[in-house]
Design a protein that fits this description.
This protein is of the alpha/beta class and 130 residues long. The protein has a single domain, classed as 5'-nuclease (Rossmann fold, 3-Layer(aba) Sandwich), CATH 3.40.50.1010. It has six helices and five strands; from the N terminus they run βααβααβαββα. A five-stranded parallel sheet has the order 3-2-1-4-5, with helices on both faces. α1 crosses α2. It is globular, with a radius of gyration of 14 Å.
Amino acid sequence: MNIVLDTNVLVSALWSADSKPGYIVNAVIAGRFTACYDYRILEEYERVLRRPKFGFSLWEVDYLLEPIVRNGLSVIPESLKNVSFTDESDRKFLEVARHCGAVLVTGNMKHYPADDRVMTVTGFYEKYCK
């Protein structure tokens, strides 16, 4: 199953591996789900996860991102036109999700327009991970 991980899911997983976000990310690393991404998403992952305020070590970030890149699906999606976002920086996640027929997993639904592909961490965990 293809999924797109919002950056906040990765942050939460690194904070607590024994959490729903942690379980989902570990399932991606184990190959249970295929993470879809594009270069913009990878750039955001790197930039955000390396922020000093989070305190993640370089090896933690590399350990997390390396299997996502190695086992994931890199795409060049079409732009979503006529879709409004509260934060334009979130557009890329939904573009990739739609391109891949993937579920977008996020900790913040209010950043996205109503779309059946967008699920909360808890909703995704309850439906696909139990």
